[in-house]
Amino acid sequence: MSSEYIYGIHAVKAVLEKDPARFIEAFVLKGRQDDRLLPLINQLQAFGVSIQQTGRKALDDKAKGANHQGIIGRVKAAKALNENDLDVILASQTNPLLLILDGVTDPHNLGACLRNADAAGVAAVIVPKDKSAPLTATVSKVACGAAETVPLVRVTNLARTMRHLQEQNVWIVGTAGEATHDVYQSKLTGPLAIVMGAEGDGMRRLTRETCDDLIKIPMAGSVSSLNVSVASGICLFEAVRQRQG
User: Fold this and answer.
1) Per residue in 186-223, pLDDT tens?
2) Do the annotations mark residue 197 as ligand-binding?
3) What residue ranges in the chain does DSSP mark as E strands?
4) How confident is the model at residue 1 (pLDDT cuts 50, 70, 90)?
5) Cβ neighbours of residue 130 under 8 Å, at least 6 residues apart?
């Protein structure tokens, strides 16, 4: 049975709420019984999860030095989603908003993008199987639980998946510095996928060529580009604003 560690209060709580059967065991900082941790411990015990009181060094080692907030869970690995799952997700949506990440390999950026996607009501985040960060404990921690609530779909051929989305009447908008108009001048209503490229390199050539439209974020200062998670948040919430209007 494949398993993985999740750490931090938000990540543990998210798995408990969505799929508690994934829990194998939990490790809790010895002597910590505060108001934030105690409800989680009680929930884990209610589901019959084995809880081990553990010293700080052992927790730090499992979390590889990251901030575990006194709790780590060992859970069954989440089911990997693919192209077939994406069709099921699309069939359940009347006006889907999707986020496509092309070449985002930093787990902190992936986690932050998932958090943005959850907040914006994104139906799925789509990434290529290659040139993409794996769904690690670091991603889950940064995502603050969003890694458990937002479907992360890994596809073999990103351009082919984009063309399939277009056949389903999904309009695909890519972000690129050379775009002739900005995000605030673009129509972001209706079935929509927003494509973000990797920092520095941006979208790959075939990804860019497959987009229906290219947009940019207007930059008033001396910095030429934004972190991909910040940029994705700006674009997603402009889409949310337009769709609410």
Assistant:
1) 999 999 999 999 877 789 999 999 999 999 999 887 67
2) yes
3) 3-7, 23-29, 50-54, 71-76, 97-102, 124-128, 152-155, 171-175, 192-197, 213-215
4) low
5) none
| Domain 3-76 CATH superfamily | Ribosomal protein L30/S12 (3.30.1330.30)
pLDDT for 67 equals 84
Residue 127, CA distances (Å) to 29, 181, 220, 226 in order: 35, 25, 30, 20
What predicted TM-score, i.e. pTM, was given to this entire model?
0.86
* Residue 218 burial (C-beta neighbours within 10 Å; 0-12, 13-18, 19+): exposed
pLDDT tens for 214-231 read 999 998 876 767 889 999
> What pLDDT shows up at residue 200?
75
Distance between CA atoms of residues 92 and 193, nearest Å: 16
Does residue 245 register a pLDDT over 80?
no
User: Residue 188 contacts by C-beta under 8 Å, 6 or more apart in sequence?
Assistant: 173, 194, 235, 238, 239, 242, 243
CATH number of 83-244: 3.30.420.280, 3.40.640.10, 3.40.1280.10, 3.40.50.700? 3.40.1280.10
User: Is 177 annotated for ligand binding?
Assistant: no
Tell me the domain boundaries of the chain.
3-76, 83-244
Which helix (H) or strand (E) segment is 45 a member of?
helix 38-46
SS3 string, 113-136, reads HHHHHHHHCCCEEEEECCCCCCCC
